[in-house]
Design goal:
The protein is mainly α. Helix 1 runs parallel beside helix 2 and helix 1 runs parallel beside helix 7. Helix content is about 65%, strand content about 0%.
Length: about 270
């Protein structure tokens, strides 16, 4: 059994913890600002945008019945929030372990190995869902052809990054170039979706666009819900005259529109604070 430098390991773990908290704080600020813009569009109280995890969950919840059939916030909680809490607890626990060389390996090594395996599996799951959630979160607000092309490029880079170790294993230069390009494009993508969200908020405030109304799942079948959401082209807002079921030609419907109770214009265009 090789000896471990307790002081060096403590320093490494301390640096890792500092970097982790910097990333978390930066991510929180970005998420809070974006959530605030989205909550203005969705008619949710602005103060809720500053509650970590809940802000993102609430956006997914508000998408249900407007652009997506399911509440993807539940998947977000399972695949993102829980693993991130586990990772944070793991790093914090490492800082506080009594790292005396013999005792450390006898008592904690098996547990640490198990936790690392779990974290690797969780990381793979997060990577897969990160690809899916790109479309779930941003497709409804990237409602122009140019903005959606940026989304598709970002999704492609996300897939490549999952396999970059194998693709560039024999060429460190290409690997570094790819990492730099991916980092730069992440910034471009962030700017694009912030601009898109701000633009949509401005459209809604102008009165020319309105938030898609939520479908009443009690009065519609699963097939009808899928058909309507697909016809909406996954767009979160539409011009006022095109909101709701009346937004599409009669010929596009697989069923008579008159069979379902419709809200009046006042109810359609009203956004309630909850």
């Amino acid at each position: 059994m090789f000896e471990i430098d307790e002081h060096l390991l403590s320093q490494i773990l301390a640096i890792a913890l500092i970097v982790f908290f910097i990333i978390v704080i930066f991510g929180y600020i970005i998420t809070a600002i974006f959530s605030k813009i989205m909550f203005d569009i969705l008619g949710v109280k602005a103060g809720l945008a500053f509650i970590p995890y809940y802000n993102t969950y609430r956006i997914y919840k508000e998408y249900k019945g407007r652009v997506w059939k399911k509440n993807w916030g539940i998947a977000y909680i399972i695949t993102f929030m829980i693993p991130m809490m586990v990772i944070g607890g793991f790093v914090f626990a490492l800082i506080n372990f009594p790292l005396t060389s013999g005792k450390f390996y006898e008592e904690f090594a098996p547990t640490l190995i198990l936790v690392l395996v779990v974290l690797i599996i969780a990381g793979l799951v997060i990577s897969v869902f990160n690809f899916i959630m790109l479309f779930i979160m941003y497709l409804p607000i990237l409602d122009t052809k140019g903005r959606r092309i940026v989304l598709y490029i970002q999704a492609g880079l996300t897939v490549l990054s999952m396999f970059s170790t194998f693709i560039f294993q024999d060429n460190s230069t290409l690997s570094n170039i790819f990492l730099l390009f991916e980092f730069a494009f992440n910034i471009i993508f962030m700017v694009v979706y912030f601009v898109a969200a701000t633009d949509i908020r401005a459209r809604v405030r102008s009165g020319k666009y309105v938030l898609q109304e939520k479908l009443d799942y009690n009065n519609l079948t699963s097939y009808e819900i899928d058909s309507i959401l697909k016809a909406r082209d996954r767009k979160l807002v539409v011009p006022v005259m095109y909101n709701g079921m009346d937004s599409y030609p009669m010929g596009d419907y697989p069923y008579p529109v008159n069979n379902y109770q419709m809200n009046n214009n006042e109810e359609v265009n009203r956004i309630e604070y909850v």
